[in-house]
Amino acid sequence: MRPVIGSLLETDLYKFSMWQAMLHRHPATQARYRFLCRNRSAFPLAELVGDVQREVDALCALSFSADELAYLRTLRYLSSDFIDFLRIFRFQRDFIRVEAEGMNLAISVEGPQVHVMAFEIFVLAIVNELYFRRVGSAAALDEGRRRLQAKIRRLREFAQEPPRRHPFRFFDFGLRRRYSGSWQREVLTTLKQELPEFFTGTSNVLLARELDLVPIGTMAHEYLQTFQGLGYRLRDHQKAALEAWVQEYRGDLGTALTDVVGMDAFLADFDLYFAKLFDGLRHDSGDPYVWGEKALAHYARLRVDPSTKRLVFSDALDIERCLDLYRHFADRTQCGFGIGTHLSNDTGLATLNIVMKLTSVNGQPVAKISDAPGKTMCDDPGFLAYLRQVFGVKA
């Protein structure tokens, strides 16, 4: 059977953007990432150890081809020296460990961040596809096609509603938790054909290239978390990360992620300078309506016209939630909707809630304090308590 991953382009765009920023500014940073499954699986994931190891071996044999590098050069925000780095890049097998811990699957990566940070999306896609090879079926794919057509019909009904000030746009964020690579390709091909007025792109760089879609993404939690371990005063790590991003991309990729230490703490750092330089904000945890109202109120206090900014929603979305949020906000600000599992793995089967998160930088713990308690992740309770204290975030 062919390996799950056949190209190093088959990752999320924000991996490339964060990778370039770290290579240019902090190339010597050491980092550790850890895999976690947050829910119960149909069988013990430890049973996948041998298959995951073989897939990782195949991943570590890949390199970027000349035509893949040529495509990346068309993305104006990726610099020529970064593309040259990718030309010689190859994953090192010694930096990743895959083993069983009881009934659980234990995966960790550790080494220079610019050599290990890209493992995340590939590992998650591998585990997910191996899992659904065992629990999936032709009937599940038939159900997935039925549900996809229902989504298309629903959006065609929505198209008959009176227009609002800003258009409705959604995109695919489903690579890491997809049913399979072939299923994600089928879904995106169908959406492009059937809903070109609404469906605008994907985070999957390989499919963006092959299907002529816009690659979409900016930063993830790991980018801001990294700055907790780079020697900045902890209270200033968000501002340092945002400033480094501004200097790196100078107007491109201008959507900031807000929930590394919670929305309130983020907005305390997101002053007029950043509000003018970033195009908008991305929601990934907590009540999206409360979050959006806080964002618009913040722009109003800064006397920034919210109609010139964009709110991107990306937390556990389905079509109805997207449409409700759109109706709520679209007359006041631009909106975008990044849909993950509901597009790439909606087949009627229970899905895995798997993540692979940054846990330490240069030997120091880092943490994410989400606006949703279940998403908070840190291996060091003492550091987590200290981070809460510094930013005034209640437990």
From TrEMBL:
Keywords: Glycosyltransferase, Ligase, Phosphoprotein, Pyridine nucleotide biosynthesis, Transferase
Coiled coil start-end: none
SUPFAM superfamilies (alphabetical): Nicotinate/Quinolinate PRTase C-terminal domain-like (SSF51690), Nicotinate/Quinolinate PRTase N-terminal domain-like (SSF54675)
Pathway: Cofactor biosynthesis; NAD(+) biosynthesis; nicotinate D-ribonucleotide from nicotinate: step 1/1
Segments traversing the membrane: none
Post-translational modification: Transiently phosphorylated on a His residue during the reaction cycle. Phosphorylation strongly increases the affinity for substrates and increases the rate of nicotinate D-ribonucleotide production. Dephosphorylation regenerates the low-affinity form of the enzyme, leading to product release.
Catalysed transformations (reactions): 5-phospho-alpha-D-ribose 1-diphosphate + nicotinate + ATP + H2O = nicotinate beta-D-ribonucleotide + ADP + phosphate + diphosphate
Superkingdom per UniProt: Bacteria
Enzyme class: ligase
GO MF, one example: glycosyltransferase activity
EC numbers: 6.3.4.21
Chain ranges of the Nicotinate/nicotinamide phosphoribosyltransferase domain: 168-393
Residues modified as Phosphohistidine: 221
Boundaries of every Nicotinate phosphoribosyltransferase N-terminal domain copy: 9-128
Main function: Catalyzes the synthesis of beta-nicotinate D-ribonucleotide from nicotinate and 5-phospho-D-ribose 1-phosphate at the expense of ATP.
UniProt record similarity statement: Belongs to the NAPRTase family.
The name this protein goes by in its record: Nicotinate phosphoribosyltransferase
Gene: pncB
